[in-house]
Design a protein that fits this description.
By secondary structure, this protein is an alpha/beta fold. It has one domain: TIM Barrel (Alpha-Beta Barrel). It contains twelve helices and ten strands. The strands form three sheets. It has a four-stranded parallel β-sheet. It is globular. The chain starts with a strand and ends in a 16-residue tail after the last helix. The structure holds zinc ion.
Amino acid sequence: MFLSIDFEDFNYDFKVKFSEANDPPLKTDALWKKYNLINEFLCRNGKNNGRFITFFCTAILAEKAPDLIRHISKDGHEIACHYYQHDIMENQSITKVETTLRRAKSILEDASQTEVIGFRAPYFKINKITPEQYLAVERCFDYDSSYYCQSTEELKKFKENMGLTQLKILPVFSKSFAGKNLRLGGTFLKLFPQFYCLFLAQKAREVGITPHIYLHPYEFGVSEEFRVSREELNKLGFGHFKSLYWQYRQSQWLTVRNASTVTKLEKLLKIYQLRGTLRDNMDHIFI
Ligand SMILES: [Zn+2]
């Protein structure tokens, strides 16, 4: 089994999303705290190479908190790229995408003092209909982990359609259910009961894909420290109802059932051992 973390600052990204002119401070202390929790979890639960995982980091973190990225890298984890800002690249021009990919990679390499060879698009949203954006990823990176699928046939067809020859696609397994693509990670892992997570991991293995869980720092236990407060929502110009809505949504991400994530992970890792970073396992992602 693989575990990867989309290492991003929920509070910062929320404020930037709703006010692009804004350049809010990072929640650096909260990010350090979450990283330490994740690392301690891995010390307890990851045996041998499974002690190390991949962190897909937004480059803005590396720009504003390079010590943190360097520290994660020095601990032996892989630093991979999660774009520059946590924005949706799907509809961006190919020039903007390629410039941003190269800039993000270079900032992350400077901070981590390692070569950055992996990429995951924010929200898994990269244009998967026409190949231009994927070909730009292929020009910058060795592997991509923005794709989810139900079978290896689906993956093979996708690679052909995109015309990819060099780029390795390390997919996250997903299962269609009631019109949704359920995955082993994020909100899905939080909300679904333990038996469902085991079921999904088993299904991934049956089709020959190593189960891969992805999480965010704010899902690792309760994370009120990342919340955008009511006063801050007011400053962003949110009206009463919009503010109420986003307070509720933030609770869904930062609080509700967050305490269960670590327990579920611990149970899953008793059955499926972690295999290490994606960088070190590019050729063993399929069972
Ligand atoms: Zn993300």
